[in-house]
Amino acid sequence: RPAAQSWDQQSQWQQEQPGAQLLERPRQPGAQLMDRARQPAAQAPPPAGRHKCFACKFVFTGHDLERDASFELVPRLIGRGGCNMRPISQACNGKLRVRGRGSGHMEQQRSTGAYAESNEPLHIALSCRSRESLEEGMRLVEALLQETRMHFVSYCRKQNILPVPELYTVVV
């Protein structure tokens, strides 16, 4: 099947790219089936760079959901009506999502089909179509998190949580 062969070639090309610090995420399986159904067999596959996605996570390792419940981290990250995250998403032309325990985002569980929060630590996931956009997005998220970190340090001191834990780590 030419479409399947071209997808395999594209995946191999993506794996051979230098500078694998950034995560590259291929299209989701459902999307490739839909694209294959639309394309006639004789048509050339889409350009390889079109479906490349660069991503990183800001994992909140120092935030404990029970101990720091009154800090309300997720509303601070998102802002009123998305006023903190929307400008970042628009500036880097990417997707910015708060996910994991405490995020309030419900995902369908594969085993049961029921909806529940992911069993991952609370994190911000950033994904962009280009390395440059991802770097810009990371810079903007870092600026937001530095301000949030200052408030977290103040909160920890008032709550007598010493030493103050590092609020987040970046995973690329």
What key attributes describe this structure?
single chain; alpha+beta
What is the mean predicted local confidence, pLDDT?
80
So what's the overall shape?
Answer: globular
What's the total count of β strands?
Answer: 7
SSE topology string: HEHEHHEEEEHE
- Any idea what the radius of gyration is? 20 Å
Number of helices: 5
Percent strand: 15-25%
Q: Kindly report how far apart the N and C termini lie.
A: 35 Å
Unreliable spans are 1-44
Mind summarizing the main beta sheet? 5 strands, antiparallel
Structural class: alpha+beta
Which bin fits the share of residues in helices? Answer: 25-40%
Describe this structure in words.
This protein is of the alpha+beta class and 172 residues long. Helix content is 38%, strand content 16%. The strands form two sheets. Strands 1, 2, 3, 6 and 7 form a five-stranded antiparallel sheet that branches. The protein has a two-stranded antiparallel ribbon with strand order 4-5. Helix 4 (85-92) runs antiparallel to helix 5. The longest helix is centred in the C-terminal third of the chain and has 28 residues, at 131-158.
Concise account of the structure shown:
With 172 residues, the protein is of the alpha+beta class.
What's the topology here?
Elements: H1 2-15, E1 23-24, H2 29-38, E2 54-59, H3 73-78, H4 85-92, E3 95-99, E4 106-108, E5 115-117, E6 123-128, H5 131-158, E7 169-171
